[in-house]
Amino acid sequence: IAMAAVGGFVILVTIVTAFGRQLGPIHNQMYYPLLFLGGYIITSLVFKELHLDGQSVFYLTLPGSTLEKFLSKLLVTSLGYAFGSLFFYAAVSSAAEGINRLIFGYGHPFFNPFERSTMIVVAAYLITQAVFLVGSVYFRKLAFIKTNLYLWLFGIVLAILVGVTA
């Protein structure tokens, strides 16, 4: 349902901007927040069953080592989400631009998933999502919000220390 909503939103935004003749490259501006925000939220929810009272026993007694359970969650939320969202967005943006060219005769530049800047952003996501994975393991409830709060708190403390040192 979330993917259909995101796909519909992307198509709607590209049609509206093409109708207003705002034909700049908008796909990178729409994909990057989708990658980071969606990936961080999914990553922070991945170990939710570990903290539920009735289901945690069943999760811990599943066959497989702790390393295998952790690596499966890590691969799904890092590489799986990053490349899945990349190919999903490429397909949706291609469909949206096809509709634009069919209706208006023009459209935005096509989204290139193998562009250098896109690959750099995907690499940055793969590195930074590990913080939210740790937050998902550590916090019982509201892991996304608590992880963000701790990151802000860490940034403030670090800024104070740098300021005092300087």
- What count of helical segments does DSSP give? 6
- Sheet bearing the most strands, described? none
Rounded mean pLDDT is 89
Q: What is the overall silhouette? A: globular
Computed over alpha carbons, the radius of gyration is 20 Å
| Unreliable residue runs | none
C-alpha end-to-end distance: 50 Å
Counting helices, strands and paired strands, the structural category is mainly alpha
Give the strand content: under 5%
Helix fraction bin? over 70%
Strand count:
0
Order of helices and strands: HHHHHH
Jot down its keywords.
single chain; 166 residues; mainly alpha
Give a nutshell description of this structure.
With 166 residues, the protein is mainly α.
How would you describe what is shown here?
With 166 residues, this protein is mostly helical. The protein is 76% helix and 0% strand. The protein is built from six helices and no strands. It has helices at residues 2-19, 27-45, 56-60, 66-103, 116-138, 143-165. Helix 5 crosses helix 6 (143-165).
